[in-house]
């Protein structure tokens, strides 16, 4: 395994299983995949993962004026193109979302080294890897510190401090630590019922079509014959069918052919759409989003219902693990910027450029990037319309106007 030399493992000999509030032993096997044979399920998850892969993660810091400042460092270098040697940033995010929806849990391990003298050492990050374990155990040492033990398909296992692992959860409810159901696994019972019905319907359609194309009639043989004679009689009948050119089948007195009027009853369109929409609604993906033929309002609804909670979760989970309490207090955080999701068409980009550009919130290079053009030297300047003024100046202007009106009233009096 490529990660073997990167893990900082700890000997679990002096550890016990972590105490859970519900009394269960915190051992979680990974994770059912029987719903993923459904093409609709795969299309939904792929749609969500593909959209999320457009996110741009960045390490930012809030200055004393609460303004976000991009930080030059190892994290932004990794986030920009390749979080590890195997994946681009797009691949990395897509992989995380697939693992999250398949397992209802996703684990990411950040590889780092300490740099600098003791007392002022800082972490320099080397890579971030999504993990796909087959079993996860939670352990505690004698001081009560929580560890997580991962088991992988190759037979290897690694024990890591839980605080060093980024953990994303979906449907985090009845289990104390893991997402999903009580046992830390995907709770797909409700969805499986719909998929089973849908599969039964599809199998019925397949059989109905095959039946309508294959069975045409029954040959009744009037005399008593043994198996060998029946076989010969059937072969004689099939030969007569294949050689007939006039549409009239010659038969002798021993055989009688009865034509079957095959009329298979197919499931109506509304029922099929109802079953498909049950699956789509479960994942928060509508038909227009799935087909790519959506309006601005439909995509906005998809973003707010399905994508935005993931964006928020990613930022919070990465920030919680990567930064210490002191670093968070100093304004450090990881933000997954969704601008490539929100500005999906030229009309929206023009509206953003008009509103933010006219107020000096965007530089010329920001505006060029919004429309896919390269920056130019000196394009970091900001321009704003004279139709807008600072709020303090507006208050001063209104007060002066009020004073002028009072003087005019006094003169008239």
Automatic annotation (TrEMBL):
Pfam family, one: Phage_portal
Organism, scientific name: Alkaliphilus metalliredigens (strain QYMF)
Full protein name: Phage portal protein
Tree of life domain: Bacteria
